[in-house]
Amino acid sequence: MAGLFDLSGKVALVTGANTGIGQGIAIALAEAGADIAAAGRSAADETVGKVRELGRKGENFAADLSSVGAVQPLVDAVLAEFGRIDILVNNAGIIRRADAVDFTEEDWDAVMDTNLKTLFFLCQSVGRHMIARGSGKIINIASMLTFQGGIRVPSYTASKSGVGGLTKLLANEWAAKGIQVNAIAPGYIATNNTAALQGDETRNRQIMERIPAGRWGDPGDLGGAAVFLASSASDYVQGHILAVDGGWLAR
Ligand code: NAP
């Protein structure tokens, strides 16, 4: 069975790998054997260092994913350095919080551009390469707000609901071409993204009380799901949104 989860010789492009969930996933994929192309607007030096300590190849690729113009140069650079991309993890994302009645167009566009538009065009660009090779794994990072409405985060909810829909659409189009497209929906994970919630005593207590596991998640909690969806263990899993949420959605 261990061979089913072995990523030796595979190349994974992980966006937003310098911190939080992206870092946790990149390190888990490297522990399973993958080489890591770490893409983001901040250098992922710590992540790349850990990947190399594991004996894998790790390289940084500077890319501001707030605009689609960054996509093709990034994919070209990764292919030039690594020769192939077997796994794409679309993790980079942002959140903006304000009441719906006050929400600005700027906060709408910024979140939709990074979380949804760039994600789609990265899937498209890497997908073309994977289709040509007849295999590949795409893992999009969704959210509880792929399933729920949330509060005070209208563009985030719209973007993550969109990620769920796109994951299914791409799975439908590419399943027969040997590409598996799935998503991970993290629950409440302690990262920069949720610092405001963790710092708000009332919201923090409300969230903790609702999580059956009784604790916030850690970026390392996403590793197993990522390795599963990146490996041949998931070759017949398509368009699935795998919640890793300590039971939040079951409540
Ligand atoms: P995080 O610590 O804030 O990490 C976000 C990552 O995205 C960082 O690497 C960030 O780079 C990168 N990023 C943001 N904008 C970018 C841009 N324009 N170009 C390139 N990279 C960019 O938050 P996180 O919690 O790990 O979030 C990772 C993903 O998980 C996001 O898609 C988020 O929506 C999703 N998620 C998080 C939770 C949670 O509870 N934490 C729950 C559900 C889903 P910088 O460091 O340079 O900003």
Task: Report a brief summary of the structure.
The protein is an alpha/beta fold. The protein has helices spanning 20-31, 45-53, 71-82, 105-133, 154-174, 195-199, 201-210, 223-230, and strands spanning 11-15, 35-40, 58-62, 87-90, 136-141, 179-186, 241-244.
Any overview of this molecule?
With about 250 residues, this protein is of the alpha/beta class. It is built from eight helices and seven strands, in the order βαβαβαβαβαβαααβ. The longest helix has 29 residues. It starts with 10 loop residues before the first strand and ends in a 7-residue tail after the last strand. The model has no long low-confidence stretch (mean pLDDT about 95). The chain binds NADP nicotinamide-adenine-dinucleotide phosphate. The site of NADP nicotinamide-adenine-dinucleotide phosphate has 27 residues, from helix 1.
